[in-house]
Specification:
Length: 416
């Protein structure tokens, strides 16, 4: 091979290698969340932010990922904290700044890469008491993330109907459910900072939750007793809001999911139709208190509950069916998943040959804190923990004509 051919071959090889070099991952584009009205923010003492906390609005950010933010040069330096209303919110500490291969944007404004690491509100708040009020969750203002076919996601008067949603139980058995879910639950936030440290946090739900559901279980063969529930997500939503505290945005994302579920066992083939029409008014929350021995606790609900259960069966047989609908609510601060709470009205029908049929119905309330949730406070970087309450239950003795309340007792652990 002569020298010219060698040079040409080498250039082609380098070109092929450069073409095969993977491009750096694309940065996500900012969206701008809706701003809550000023009345949604309360301060019992003036909230003071550190001078190193720099606010970048979403319009000044061209893109972001887990470790980088591409933004206009606003004088941010290494060691600063950036707070932004970009998408689900950004709360990061700047570790270094790079201008390599950036240049200027279409407006002639210089841009920089801000290399970042995790941060928490404790890093930027020096003192003050802060409260955030999300207000009523109007589903007509939400983004629909997913929905089963036939589920009406834009419902009138807060009622979300569903029809003939099939939940496979296994071994030839299915539960077909129809009905509607109506909710007027409002989330509650209370945060307390003192001397730059998070002391207390309370997140809860208050308001009403109603379900009108009929479930028809068809078993073509014996069903072994089940230890797990089968669930189907009807629809999930997302609400993203920015609360302005002074000039600093606090971004909260709430993602409600409406879910139906079932479990069953049967000694022989049968058809059972059972209904539940509970209406719940409650005030329920989970609470973090740094000074307490048990840092995460449930604030026991104050609630009223009516169930209105009904049923009919085709043939008497030993069987047990469970049906429920639930609202599961997860919350994020600055894009980091935090506490989750759920409210779950349920109905359990037990058929024993020669005995009165029994229906146990009520509501289960539970709360979970995810591991690593430290965006509010460094002390919240903890193992996943869960707290729950099952106080609102009642037992009924039933005939095919009516059900009479028997006692108020909690469910056995394996049927909650």
């Amino acid at each position: 091979m002569n020298m010219k051919l060698a040079i040409v071959f080498g250039m082609l090889t380098l070109g092929a290698m450069s073409c095969n070099t993977p491009a750096p991952p694309a940065l996500a584009k900012c969206t701008t969340p809706e701003m809550q009205p000023p009345t949604s923010v309360t301060t019992n003492a003036a909230v003071v932010f550190k001078a190193q906390a720099k606010t970048l609005d979403s319009a000044s950010i061209d893109g972001y990922d887990a470790n980088r933010v591409l933004a206009q040069d606003k004088g941010v330096v290494g060691g600063d904290f950036i707070v932004s209303d970009c998408s689900e919110g950004l709360l990061r500490q700047v570790t270094s700044i790079s201008t390599a291969n950036v240049g200027v944007d279409t407006r002639g404004i210089e841009k920089v890469y801000l290399n970042t690491s995790d941060a928490s509100l404790e890093d930027v708040v020096t003192s003050g008491d802060l409260g955030l009020d999300y207000g009523a969750l109007d589903f007509n203002q939400a983004t629909v993330l997913s929905a089963l076919p036939g589920v009406q996601t834009r419902a009138v008067n807060g009622a979300l109907p569903f029809k003939d949603t099939v939940i496979p139980i296994g071994n030839g058995a299915t539960l077909k459910v129809s009905g509607s879910i109506t909710q007027t639950l409002n989330p509650k936030f209370n945060l307390k900072f003192s001397n730059g440290s998070l002391e207390k946090l309370e997140i809860g739900l208050s308001g009403g939750f109603g379900v009108s559901m009929i479930g028809k279980l068809t078993a073509t063969a014996k069903i072994a007793a089940l230890t797990a529930d089968f669930e189907k997500e009807l629809v999930s939503y997302r609400f993203t809001r920015a609360f302005l505290v002074g000039v600093v945005p606090v971004v909260v994302v709430i993602e409600p999911k409406l879910i139906v579920g079932a479990a069953a066992s049967a000694n022989e083939p049968l058809t059972v139709t059972a209904g539940i029409s509970p209406n719940v008014n409650l005030n329920f929350s989970i609470k973090y208190d740094r000074a307490a021995t048990n840092k995460w606790t449930i604030v026991e609900p104050t609630a009223s509950f009516s169930a209105n259960p009904t049923f009919e069966i085709s043939t008497p047989s030993g069987a047990k069916t469970k049906a429920y609908a639930k609202l599961a609510l997860s919350m994020k601060f600055y894009g980091v998943v935090g506490p989750e709470i759920e409210t779950k009205p349920f109905s359990v029908l037990t058929i024993v040959p020669g005995q009165t049929t029994k229906i146990n119905t009520g509501i289960t309330l539970s709360g979970t804190v995810n591991a690593g949730f430290k965006v509010l406070g460094k002390n919240l970087s903890l193992s996943t923990s869960s707290v729950s309450s099952n106080a609102l239950t009642a037992n009924y003795n039933c005939t095919s004509a009516s059900c009479i309340i028997a006692a108020a007792n909690p469910l056995p652990e394996n049927m909650r």
